[in-house]
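Reading group handout, session on sequence-to-structure problems. Before we discuss, look at one worked example. The prompt was deliberately terse, the way you'd type it at a terminal:

> structure HTH-type transcriptional regulatory protein TyrR

The input record follows.
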Amino acid sequence: MEKKNKDKLSEDSQLYYLMESIHDNVVITNGQGVIQWVSPSCEETYGMRRQDFIGKDTFEMERRRIWYPAVAPMVLRSKEKVTILEQTKKGEKLVVTGIPILNKDNEIKRVVSYSFDPSYLLELSEQYQNMKALISRYSAEIRELREKEMHLPGVVAQSQKMNTIFKMIMKVAQVETNLLITGESGVGKSLIARKIHQHSTRNKGPFIEINCGSIPENLLESELFGYEPGAYTGALKSGKIGMIQLAHEGTLFLDEIGELSLNLQVKLLKVIQDKVLKRIGSTEDSSVNFRLVAATNQDLNKLVNKGLFREDLFYRLNVVPLHVPPLRERSEDILPLIMHFLKLANKKYNKNRTISNDAVDTLISYEWPGNIRQLKNVVERLVILSDKNHISRTGVLSRTTNKSTMTPDENMPLKEALQMVEKQIIQKAYERHRTTVKVAEALKISQSSAARKIKQYISDY
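And the output record:
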C-alpha cells in the first residue's frame, strides 16, 4: 500500500512538472465552470497573477471581459469540443479551443481550454506567399532550361533543305493546327516536334511524348486515355491519368502514329474532333485542349490505301505535312553535326578529343541508315574508345566498320558464321526501322522473335 502511494505521488509530481512546463495558454475548470488551474503563460496573456485565477467563475471572467466570449460555458452547454475567436482585456485576439472531459456517467467533470495567438498564421501565410514566389521563379528557370534543352543535336544544320524546314517550323508553330512530321527513323522528328512546341503559344504548357510503336496495343489505350480505379484486372486502385489529359493546354506528340491500331485510331479521331475523352471504365466525358503533333517513318497514304490507316484521321493530321530528309540527302549537315556531337561528348566524358580531316571525310562518305541518331552514337563511341586524343581515319574505320561488308571467315564454324550474318541483318534492320513491329515485318518474323534477337545483338536496346 505504501509503495502504491509513493508511485502515485511520483506520477502526480511528474504530471505537475509537465503541466508547469507548458508554454501555451491552458485553463482548466471543473464541471461548474470554476477555474482550477492555469498555465504560467496566462499571467502575461490575460494580465492577472496565476493565484488570482484559481476559484474564479469563468462566467464572471467573461462579464469582466478578462476574456470574451468565454469558451468554457459553451462547452458546458454543448458537451462538445468548441473553437472560437476570443478577445482579451488587453485587446489581443486568440484562437481558443475548449474540450470537455466526461466521467463514466457522461457528465462533464472538467473543461480544458487552450489558446494560441493566430498572428503566427499570418507569418505562415507570408512564408507561403514567399514560397509561391520562389516556386514561380524556379518554374521560370526550369522553362528557360527547357528552352535551352530544345536546342538539341537534331536542329544543328547548314543545308538549304533544313533551313527551309526551319522557316516552316517558325510559321506553323504560331498556328493552332495539327501537324504531321514524316521521315526515316533517327532524322530528328522528336526534336523538331519539341522545337515547334517551344515556339508555339502553348510553350508554357506540357510537352507530352509517346511512341506508339514501343508500347503493346493492349497497354497503349490505357497509356493514352487513362482509366478509372479498378477499371480492369491489374489496374491501379487509384486509377491513372492518360497522356492525352496530361497534355492539356500543351502539346501531345504521337511518334510512330502509323503503328496505332484501327480501334485506337477511331478513339483518337473522336478526341480530336470533340475535344473530350472517356477514361477506360468511365461513363463521363473529360474536356481536353491540346495541340496534336504526330510523326511517322511510314507512308501513311499507302497505309490508307491498304485499309490499315483511317483516311479521315490521315486528313485530320496532314493539314500541314512536314518531311524531314534523311542525312544521306543532306551531307553538308554531317560536318556541323560531327563537331557538335564531339563537343557534347568531350564535355560529357571529360575528354579533349579532336578529329582529323580524313576521319571526317570517312564519316561524311558513310550512308548513315540510322541517320542523326546513329551519327551521334558513333561520335560518342569514338570519344569513349579512342586510344589517343586525336581521332584518326584508322580509328574511325576500326570503330565503325560497315557491318554489311563483313563476311565470315572460311574456317569459322557454321554456327558462328550464321550467327554473325544474323547479327548484321538484325542490326541493320533495327538501325532503319527502330521498332520491333517494323523489324518483324521487314524480316518476316514474329514480333517476339524480333524483340528477342534485338535484345541479344544490340547492347543499347
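Points for discussion. First: The chain has a mean pLDDT of 83. Second: The radius of gyration is 37 Å.
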